[in-house]
Amino acid sequence: MRQVFPAQPGRSFSAPTAAPPESAPRGTPPARRRRCHGRNAYGVEAGRDAADTVKVAVCGAHLSGLPLNWQLTQRGARLLGAVQSAPKYKFYALAGGPVQRPGIVRVAEGGAAIDMEVWELLAEHFGSIVDGIPAPLGIGKVKLADGTWVSGFVCEAIGVEDGTEITQLGSWRGWLAQKG
């Protein structure tokens, strides 16, 4: 059974910058690398190569316990932890539904840190997640508070025109609690 580590608010997730341990020379396809036992430097469990996984930052309906989280867990995604974005984002409750969703937009000025979770899933399942994302949302790179960049849900600027800015709340859960 896989062990899932609980999210720890206030703790920052950071992927190591060094190459993961491997016995094959660089350039060897991932399928020919020796798999690790236990956890490697990236925290990837035995039987998974870091090259076989994708880390995804979520900030809304895909968070633990919220309506779209099943789209991650059904694909075997594993929660790595709670993080915050760099203080470079505006945050909006988007119009539409029936599942309400937020959108983050990176800005040059006036942004804030937004509460997020980082999930890891097998790369073979990443495409099916991306394919199911409705416009104006998409996957882009999100800068975390510790300066690292990960793939994550982002919003096209035009998508927030009919939305409500909730940047001051700093989290989707905060907006849901305020909304009642």
Automatic annotation (TrEMBL):
Gene3D superfamilies: Gamma-glutamyl cyclotransferase-like. Residues 1-35 are annotated as: Disordered. It holds the Pfam family AH_C. InterPro entries: AH_C. Residues 54-177 form the Allophanate hydrolase C-terminal domain. This is Allophanate hydrolase C-terminal domain-containing protein. It comes from Hydrogenophaga bisanensis.
